[in-house]
Amino acid sequence: MNRTLTKPFTDDMVRPVMSTTVWFWAIVLATGTVVASGAAAWGYQLWYGIGLSGKRWPGFWALYLTNFVFWIGISHAGTLISAILRLVNAGWRRPVTRVAEVITVFALMIGAMFPIIHLGRPWLAFWLFPYPSAREIWPNFRSPLAWDFFAINTYLTGSVLFLLLPMIPDFALVRDRSTGWRRKFYGALSFGWRGTTRQWNRLESAMQIMAIAILPVAVSVHTIVSFDFSMANVPMWHSTIFGPYFVAGAIFSGIAALILAMAALRKALHLEKYLLPLHFENLGKLLLLMSILWGYFVFNERLTVWYGNEHHEMAVFWATQRGQYAPLYWTMVICNFIIPIALLSNPYTRNIIGCVVASFGVVIGMWLERFLIIVPSLAHKALPYSWGTYTPTPVELMIMAATFAAMILLYALFAKFVPIIAIWEMKAGDFAHAPRQGLAAADPHRIDAAAPASPEAAS
Amino acid sequence: MSAIYGLYSDPNVAQVAVNNLRAAGVPDADITVISSEPFEHFEFGHRDARTAMPWIATAAGAAGMVATYYLLGLSQHAWPLVTSGMPVAPLWTNLIIIFEMTMLSAIAATVITLIVTAFIGERGTLYDPEVSDGYILVGVEKTGDAGKLESALKIDGGRVKSI
User: Fold this and answer.
1) Do A445 and B131 count as a contact with CB atoms less than 8 A apart?
2) The complex's ipTM?
3) Cβ–Cβ < 8 Å for A222, A60
4) CB-hemisphere CA count at 13 Å for A287?
5) What span, in angstroms and rounded, lies between the C-alpha atoms of A368 and A335?
6) Which segments in chain A show pLDDT lower than 70?
7) pLDDT one-digit tens code per residue, B39-48
């Protein structure tokens, strides 16, 4: 097997890093403008006060915290999926992992901004951090908000490292192929990586350990975000199902975001040879599974509330089923359940277009789900005198739009500076498939020569 | 001549080169193999595979767990806040923070071990940029009997270079 055959693949991966297209600048300009507008809107809110948002008594958690929960959910696309696929040694994961892990890091960064934007005086945000201070505002470690601080920071730290470590060999590869400032830049980022067997073994051991550690952390993060709600005695929040329901929803929206990102990158960077229909089909199957699981959780939650027939809970229940929030609720059901099942259960429509359409629906549906968890419950608390309504203001909508643009902008910049597919993982996967071509029998040095096929090949 | 090495496009040939160097009396620790991908299906890819990293991560996780348990308890008792009739240092809620810090400690220890063993502790300077084109470098930095080493590395399907 001639290893120089990998050169065209490497060239394809490094090309976007070495050259810049007009499209890249167009995307940066368009998304940068929206991000700047969002920053201006936030500045406007800071100057004139939080009253510019639509938050009014009794609904003080509204669009900003909807986006907080939504983005933390989207963050489950990457590290969690990547870690699972890495641990089960799924061969088809190789072109997908980095695309997914990047979503996690950026979505967490964006999501973690919202509790600060949500504050009336965000310059005092550090008061929320759990540290003892001379103001005698001692941290209350029994507060779910303090748990959020620990969980999100642990997940963000772990996810950043989980993304960065496997990038080091690829930085070394770009270093070897570049000159001038790029060579210095990627030389510094590669930390002197040479690719000795010792380095490869240590890197793979570290990735394995981190994959094991990051899985429970990922599950804990969204469980703890759900505790922000379920620990409060608010109608339809105080429920034991919220932990797994939130985790399932997060993985669901995460997979949808991953499919959308893969489809966009495939088109923009001409990665048709590497991001194959098989990858979309496999992720489509996962999305279908999560859609059914999501439907199962919603049914459980709704049935229990309906059967319990508590007055204050039924007020929220009917407001969403056939009241003022019903259009949003049934749109959510169509987007999260009907469309994915219709498109993804049929092998003929479980193609790239079908997966993209279903994923687009799921992203919309899951945003609506977050909104419908927060707003109707706060608008229909136990005592009817405290009922209210909520309408988002242009400032809130502008800030929200800016975060979506920020995600696209960060992603475009990342794909510009880093090979978006892990080159070394693809090469290793390419060789792992060699037994299929009958190389194992002819190769006395392979330690698996006697085995019929590697697990990678089987996948 | 400070180093001699061969570049091979085929991992089978690279494995033969490693075996030849061993047969020529070069200790395993002196043989350098560099590649742009891991070769876990080959014997040479398993050199230096033994590592205490999982044990270090486990120990760090355990240390993080114990430290967080006591730090949280000390912190809570230093300023006893009474909330909703809960104990000052309730284990149920503290378990959440203890869990997160356990995992963070294990992750941090793993990364520090990686940096120390794979980067700071990595000796040698032998390298060839052709590695990034898919070639496997097999070489020796301490060249005692250069002729013997050169004949060990000279195999069909490879090129020998010296620096």
Assistant:
1) no
2) 0.93
3) no
4) 41
5) 9
6) 1-7, 130-138, 430-459
7) 888 888 888 8
Closest partner residue to B110 among A153, A193, A209, by Cβ? A209
Neighbours of A267 (CB within 10 A): 12
CB atoms within 10 A of CB A369: 28
Chain B neighbors of A4, CB-CB under 8 A:
9, 133-135
Domain ranges of chain B: 3-49+126-162, 53-118
**Of 3.30.70, 1.20.120, 3.30.530, 2.70.50, which CATH number belongs to B3-49+126-162?**
3.30.70
Q: Which residue has the tokens 């494995």?
A: B15
Amino acid in position A182: R
Q: Give how far A202 is from chain B: nearest CA, Å.
A: 6
Amino acid found at A68: F
The CATH number of whichever domain residue A310 belongs to comes to 1.20.1630.10
B-chain CB neighbours of A200 within 8 Å are 35, 37-39, 45
Q: Which residues pair with B33 in a beta bridge?
A: B138
Query: Is residue A39 domain-resident?
Result: no
For residue A22, give both structure tokens. Answer: 């007009």
Question: Nearest by CB to A141, which of B57, B97, B99?
Answer: B97
Helix axes A326-333, A352-379, angle to 10 degrees: 150
User: How many angstroms separate the CA atoms of A275 and A265, rounded?
Assistant: 9
Q: pTM of the prediction?
A: 0.88
